[in-house]
DNA sequence: AGGGCATGTGTACGAGCGTACACAGCGCTG
DNA sequence: CAGCGCTGTGTACGCTCGTACACATGCCCT
């Protein structure tokens, strides 16, 4: 073999494989994810993906974690959620509006990874971490029970938008979030 | 071939294939669904499944419809939901409690089919029908906006139970449903 | 009564998959 | 500075998959 083409000591290799996995899932869905498709997308040999991730579940765990980080960063960038003066229902409904307006495909991707936990026990701890992290942020503005409920409501609304191919309705979302918050005195 | 083993003019064939598909999804998930696995489960030849359902999406559409009918029957069997005297939040929270207590696997199955609409456009109309049907039933007790919100909340709560492997919390669910209903004057 | 056509059957093909494994490069440790 | 071991590579095997297709069967319409 031509030794020149050999790329050795690639420190970011593992991360690049995760990035490639996310792109593959975004384009073809989890059903289209395989060691081979990821290898092609990341431009690494097949053996490299199987070396770093023994099973596809391992790869999905890494991908879900990475996707969660991306969304968490978007929340952190939203001052309205953290600002105690701002109306929480408005802030959250607006945040979801941004998500859908900016890149519906990304929302689809992140929910696909998240929902995959339904059938893949390996992903459930990661999904649970995400819920708790989200609820933790919101609990600062209300209380733990209400925070958990807000997460559930946002999940449910997003899901219906994505599953039934309808438009995201921000005023409606704001109204429902307000109801859940309202009785809590938030 | 021995003509005796040939089974011809099997009127329930199509329905039996759908039943078999549901059992396969329940046992192995959608990822384990194939023309071959369904054929084996239904005890029909491979060609029979490809004849009745050209694509797996066709089969999934039929399976989702059937699963929806099953759940709809369970709702119809619940007098508390229809009874205008009963408290709706209590009735719905109790209904979900029954579902999880009776057969968590069935809930998993039905959500897996439902959520598959995220990546399979062919399923989206069926998922949308289901949402509308559910919202339609609940709208009789409240109003269309609240009904849609109740469906979203129940979806979100069920999802978190299934995705994070936690116990279903009926009093919590009742409380949240009450908040969503409360502000609507339901 | 007979032919058309929907239904049912069996087999074969090519593609893609996870997995395994033997070998190559190279830093790190002793 | 020698060799162990982690990282990376290439190839091959056996399996399952969707699809296609040629042929069998018997109801239904004329």
UniProtKB/TrEMBL annotation, chains A, B:
Database matches in SUPFAM superfamilies: Homeodomain-like (SSF46689), Tetracyclin repressor-like, C-terminal domain (SSF48498)
Coiled-coil intervals: none
DNA-binding residue intervals: 34-53
UniProt keyword annotations, A-Z: DNA-binding
Keyword set includes Methyltransferase: no
Protein name: TetR family transcriptional regulator
Pfam families, per database record: TetR_C_31, TetR_N
Record PROSITE patterns: HTH_TETR_2
UniProt cross-references to Gene3D superfamilies, sorted A to Z: Tetracycline Repressor, domain 2
Species annotation: Streptomyces bambusae
HTH tetR-type domain sequence ranges: 11-71
């Amino acid at each position: 073999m031509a030794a020149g083409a050999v790329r050795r000591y690639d420190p970011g290799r593992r991360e690049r494989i995760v990035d490639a996995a996310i792109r593959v899932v975004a384009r073809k869905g989890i059903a289209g994810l395989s060691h081979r498709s990821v290898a092609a997308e990341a431009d690494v040999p097949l053996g490299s993906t199987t070396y770093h991730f023994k099973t596809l579940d391992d790869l999905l765990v890494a991908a879900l974690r990475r996707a969660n980080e991306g969304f968490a960063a978007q929340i952190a960038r939203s001052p309205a959620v953290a600002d105690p003066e701002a109306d929480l229902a408005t802030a959250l409904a607006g945040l979801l509006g941004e998500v859908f307006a900016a890149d519906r495909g990304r929302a689809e991707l992140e929910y696909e990874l998240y929902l995959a936990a339904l059938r893949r026990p390996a992903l459930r701890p990661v999904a649970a971490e995400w819920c708790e992290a989200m609820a933790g942020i919101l609990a600062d503005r209300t209380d733990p029970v209400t925070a958990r409920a807000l997460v559930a409501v946002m999940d449910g609304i997003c899901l219906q938008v994505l599953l039934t191919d309808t438009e995201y309705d921000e005023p409606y979302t704001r109204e429902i979030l307000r109801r859940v918050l309202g009785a809590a005195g938030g």
